[in-house]
Amino acid sequence: MAGRTLYIRFASTTGDAMGMNMISKGTEKALAVMEEYFPEMSILALSGNFCTDKKPAAVNWIEGRGKSVVAEAVIPGDVVTKVLKTTVEDLCRLNLKKNLVGSAMAGSIGGFNAHAANILTAMYLATGQDPAQNVESSMCMTLMEPTNDGKDLLITCTMPSIEVGTVGGGTGLGPQSAMLDLLGIRGAHPTSPGHNARQLARIIAAAVMAGELSLMSALAAGHLIKAHMQHNRTPTSPVPSHPSTPAPFANLDHQFLTAGKPATRQASTGALKPVSPY
């Protein structure tokens, strides 16, 4: 309640669809029924931003939206040392100071992670999800702690609002459909509605956890900038854009008008040709 305004948050199951259109239709019907019982009420809009869709919101972080997933893994200490080039102690200390304290200092909502949005958005594009929903879907808390008498690393990623589907929207596009097929979750599950969408959410959370471990290890080892420079895909000599920018013609504005008539520049020679305004 906000004064005399009531905000209602509808919840329903949507099978293997992400379900925004589905629940919008259902909500519209539900409001129509409510009007019959409360004729004095006035519906301002179908959405009142208490959903909350495509915006960071504490309500999604606390109550969840879409799929709520916790991914967990134990990384052996020798892998942390030999492969990730850091230590369990250093990773745990960095995770506390960066992902937890640093994000709290920034007043972040659901941003207690290193770069969950990078991984999630890439997978959203690859599997036909709505990329704008990365705002709330990438909310994630990454936790690290020593385990097995301090020898190994326990890492978890908690993601309470992964909004995904395996039917509808962009999932029907050729490349995206092929990616879902590769993962074994294309379309609706034949016997257990919602299974494929839940499995996709699990896959995304696991991928996010792998990305968190990678970046945090690079930061703890001081390898981030070195890796960027070594694996940078930008050529050393920038390739000029085509067509060229209009900068060389900035001082030739007077040539673009001939006898008060607009003119166009021929792309091949740079010559100007008058164009009739009629």
Describe the overall structure.
It is a single chain. The protein has 278 residues and is α+β, with helices and mostly antiparallel strands. It is built from nine helices and seven strands, in the order ααβααβααββαααβββ. A hairpin with a 6-residue loop joins β6 (261-265) and β7 (272-274). α4 (88-105) packs across α8 (195-221) and α5 runs antiparallel to α8 (195-221). The chain is globular, with a radius of gyration of 26 Å. It starts with 19 loop residues before the first helix and ends with a strand. The relative contact order is 0.13.
| Derived structural class | alpha+beta
Main beta-sheet strand count, sense and barrel state: 4 strands, mixed
Rg (C-alpha, Å)? 26 Å
Find the count of extended strands (DSSP E, 2+ residues).
7
Please count the helical segments: 9
Helix content range of the residues, please?
25-40%
Poorly predicted spans: 252-260, 262-278
Mean pLDDT: 88
Proportion of beta-strand residues? 5-15%
State the end-to-end CA separation.
60 Å
* Overall geometric form: globular
Order of helices and strands: HHEHHEHHEEHHHEEE
Main-sheet strand order equals 1-4-3-2
How is the secondary structure organized here?
Blueprint: H1 20-37, H2 58-63, E1 67-75, H3 77-82, H4 88-105, E2 111-112, H5 116-127, H6 134-137, E3 140-147, E4 152-162, H7 174-182, H8 195-221, H9 224-231, E5 257-258, E6 261-265, E7 272-274
Parallel strand pairs: 2-3
Antiparallel strand pairs: 1-4, 3-4, 5-6, 6-7
Helix pairs in contact: 4-8, 5-8
